[in-house]
Design goal:
CATH class of the largest domain: Alpha Beta
Number of helices: 11
Strand content: 5-15%
CATH architecture of the largest domain: Alpha-Beta Complex
Radius of gyration: 20 Å
Strand order of the largest sheet: 1-2-3-4-5-7-10
Helix content: 40-55%
CATH topology of the largest domain: 2-enoyl-CoA Hydratase, Chain A, domain 1
Largest sheet: 7 strands, mixed
Order of helices and strands: EEEHEHHEEHEEHHEHEHHHH
Structural class: alpha/beta
Shape: globular
Number of strands: 10
Distance between the termini: 23 Å
């Protein structure tokens, strides 16, 4: 049975179904473009799910056929014509500090989240919306989904970590091409580049993505958390540091009840039942 998590706004919804926490962009009339309420919602939902023992995997998706169109360009234009956005700093230093804070609440929080994060793209992911999808550990896409960096099209350099995530995923030369020329990538293109892990049919996509997450959530949660620590560390550390950390996490995981259960299940030729202990 599903239960809701209060995000403080209808722009971003959050609920828990079984062992999966689901975060949903909910501005379909703006193709789920970002808003201050969306940022506030992430800042409420992610800490709640991080400490919720029932949540083993987080799924981030969007309502209305899109994932997230990134920054609200219509709102940007209105702000440009009107001298700024209400409630937002206007000076350079204050604006930089504000954006850094927002990025940490979303992209950094997703990347460092202590459980697997899956982004499910039912449709377009553009600009900062694509950056946020790239901050997830795994991306699933509907056949109709399209991805575009988009920043070059609006004369902006990019935010929410897209340049860092793309460089890790596709290498520096391809990342530069994707940023400077901003091609519209189909789900097949994205799969070939390694930007998405799997592509599912449009019909039944939401159900397929949730089923994928339930399967992921059925696995050993402590081991998955330690795996994510190892994999994140591998992005920035040398081999010796990685080996030392892997050794500590391997010993930790093998001292869990879940490891003992898995070993017993292997001998008994049955599926293990992981409890997160």
């Amino acid at each position: 049975m599903a239960r809701d998590i209060d995000t403080g706004s209808d722009d971003l919804l959050a609920r828990v179904e079984g062992n999966v926490g689901i975060i949903t962009f909910n501005r379909p009339e703006r193709r789920n473009a970002l808003s201050d309420a969306v940022y506030t919602g992430f800042d409420a939902a992610l800490p709640a799910m991080a400490t919720d023992p029932e949540v083993r995997v987080v799924l981030v998706t969007g309502n209305g056929g899109a994932f997230c169109a990134g920054g609200d360009v219509k709102e940007m234009n209105e702000a440009n014509q009107g001298g700024g956005r209400a409630g937002r700093p206007s000076g350079f230093d204050d604006s930089v500090t504000h954006l850094r804070s927002l990025q940490r609440k979303v992209s950094l929080a997703l990347h460092e989240f202590p459980k697997p994060v899956v982004a499910a793209l039912p449709g377009a992911a553009a600009g900062a919306g694509l950056s946020i999808a790239l901050a997830a550990d795994i991306r699933l896409a509907a056949e109709r989904a399209v991805m575009v960096t988009a920043f070059a099209n609006v004369g902006a350099s990019g935010d929410f970590g897209g340049s860092w995530f793309l460089t890790q995923l596709v290498g520096p030369a391809k990342a530069r091409e994707l940023y400077w020329t901003s091609p519209k990538l189909s789900s097949t293109d994205a799969l070939g580049l390694g930007l998405v892990n799997q592509v599912f049919p449009d019909d039944g996509f939401d159900e397929a993505a949730l089923e994928y997450c339930h399967d992921l959530a059925s696995r050993a949660p402590i081991a998955q958390r330690l795996m994510k620590e190892n994999l994140n560390r591998a992005l920035t550390c040398d081999l010796a540091t990685a080996l030392d950390a892997e050794a500590a996490n391997m010993v930790r995981s093998m001292k869990t009840a879940d490891h003992q259960e898995a070993a017993l299940a292997f001998v008994e030729k049955r599926a293990p039942r992981f409890e997160g202990h």
